Amino acid sequence: MDEQERRLNDFEREMTLLSRHFIASRGPRMGQTLERSAYVLLTRLETGEPLTLKELAHTFHVGLSTINRQVSAMLRKDLVERIPDPDGGMARKYRPTALGLERLRADRAIGLEGTARLIETTEWTDETTQHFLTLLSELNQSIEGLVLARPRQAGAASDPGN
Question: Against a cut of 0.90, is the pTM above it?
Fold first, then answer.
């Protein structure tokens, strides 16, 4: 195995472990009111401009029917609202409602308790934690940029949360 293959193997293993540890640290979803898919979608919608169903499906690598089902459930619960395209396009866009953001903040507060426990177990300094956060943020922004720039591949069937 050459150096690049070793690095890729190490990266894949560490990301898998990180995701497992992070999800486990949050504990059971007791007290949280949002379905996991709604939490993930609202988290994405709160950080940027409103998105169409097609853009959401592309972002999460899911089929249009999957994202339509999830957003429709969120519409019925008044977590998101459908608005005209601010740029004048034909497709409707979706953004979080005040209720959706309120419920997201409440669920996030519960989840942050687990995140705090996870960070405390590392015994890292504030500087080390901030450095890791900076690198993780750069990684996620780069991935997001690639996802939005790349045409959606046929057959993508994973769910953003359910």
Answer: no
- 94 SS3 class: strand
Structure tokens at 123: 């015994």
pLDDT score of 147 more than 70: no
What lies within 8 Å, CB to CB, of 24 at 6+ separation is: none
B/e letters for 89-117, b = 16+ CB within 10 Å, e = fewer, are eeeebbbbbeebbebbeebbebbeebeee
The structure tokens 């943020």 sit at: 137
Which secondary-structure segment (H or E) carries 11? Answer: helix 3-25
Sign, Cα dihedral of 43, 100, 117, 30:
negative
Write the pLDDT tens digit of every residue in 24-61: 766 656 667 888 899 999 999 998 889 999 999 988 88
